[in-house]
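Follow-up to my earlier ticket, as requested here are the two runs.
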Amino acid sequence: MKRIPLLLLLSVILLTASLAAGTDIPYLTGRVTDNAQILSPETRRSLTESLKAHEDRTGDQIAILTVPTLGGASIEEYAVEVFKAWKLGQKGKDNGILIIVVPKDRRMRIEVGYGLEGTMTDLTAGRIIQHVMTPKFKNGDYNGGIMDGALAVIKVLEGGTLPPAAGDEDGARGKSKSLNIEGPDMSIAERILFGAFIFGIIGLFTIIGILTPGVGWFLYLFLIPFWAMFPIVILGTRGALICLVTYLVVFPAAKLFLRNSDWYKKARNDLRTKGSASIGGFTLRSGSSSGSSGSSFSSGSSFSGGGGSSGGGGSSGSW
């Protein structure tokens, strides 16, 4: 009977050790650390020469790391830890960039030091990942993908611009004829989680505004900037614009449609005569004892931010 707990303990130890082994931070052996062994000697040599020449010209330090797998660990957290351990960039300038490729996990990331975030923005890093590196990786060309990605990073840091992605030249015509929504570089799971959080909050207050006499029109105006900006995190600019237009049309239409319903009339009458009304668990009270038309609402819960912060800029991707 004692063997079962012992075997279970050994299994947990071995599992923990295997996961930890997949996320060990390697030694900084050079500008290119190819632990996944996906680069040819010629590519490693050419990359090293290009990165060294760039550092000689600008002082920026760019390092490339490949690891076979992270064993389920987050590539964003792993990139931050490697960046700190390797101390990329000059002290006080924080002008370092780390390019990580994890072939077995099909993940990659460009981690950007604080000093270069103004030049290598998250959007630019995401474009390099999506339009320069990902197409090569999908074809199994790690040498070409990493080389082209590194050269694109160098080009941006030295004042150049990225060429338009395939199809971008027809962007104005093609996008105007479709509802193709381009959002930030996020996985499906991340989009679902962030979407549930954001749309849950502004959706709740939108429903309250539609169902509430008086103060509902104030909420209609108050929520406009939230519907304009928050959806960008999930759906991108075009998706946020569609959400805003939908909100601007649907909210007043629904409110005008419901104003003649019996419960809406009752709530409006209760506010005028009793000074309060109850709708869906929320208690509405008139704004003053004189019977003015202004109203406010209250509930048993509140929402506020926690004052968090993030590590560094950059972008992640998969193929």
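Run two:
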Amino acid sequence: MSTDATTYSSPLRATANDGRVALVTGGGTGIGRATALELSATGARVVICGRREAPLLATAAEIEGAGGSCLALPADVREAEQVEAVVSAALERYGAIDVLVNNAGGQFTAPAEELTDNGWRAVGRLALDATWTVTRTVATRSMIPRREGLIVFVGFSPLRGIPGFAHACAIRAAVANLASGLALEWSRHGIRSVCVAPGTIRTEGLEQYGSETVANWERAVPLGRLGSPQEVAGLVAFLATPAGSYITGTTIVIDGGVDAWGLAEAPPR
């Protein structure tokens, strides 16, 4: 049975994340938006950032309309000074950041031989370099001094190469290994680090790939459907609760069985 924004009801208690403060990058749309809403619905106070102000304000209004607390901050996380400003504003408002969700990212499809250096760098700068800048800043300014925290990285499924996405697959694999490496180093500070690897999720971002491509991806899912942002958000919110407190250093796949099945199509000729 599928779930979406109109039918979704959180399985977590409304107090499951009481007292926590969460920062979600790319929090105005898609998985980031759903995650911010779910964290708020389970008791967390939420900070969201992204490059476009309008969707951030709409998400914040929805959270506050439901009785939650949300700080929306337009920012480009590729710029270190803007990351510092976001973290400073979050700490000034709420005093701490307990949960960081590194959701900001983007990619495009292209044959590997047609990838330019600029194209490669553009994806890497956002999905890997900016992710590290946000992670380091939050960790050093809040999590390490307070000796607690959860860092969630967003990866890719299937956990292998995908035709047309050599660049994105390589960079997201680096993110997954960053998650496990930090778990080993920062466990001594009480910090957990987990990579969540969604498969194809039905968000507005799918429109760029065209209906035929998306339909092909859907046919490759053993469960027979695409995932919803709410399903990914529910996993992230669970990880933030005490029930998730022994989970660290791993990648959790949420893809309807795609990674287990493989690409289920002939290789490009």
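The only thing I checked on run two: Residues 179 and 193 are 5 Å apart (CA to CA). Let me know what else you need.
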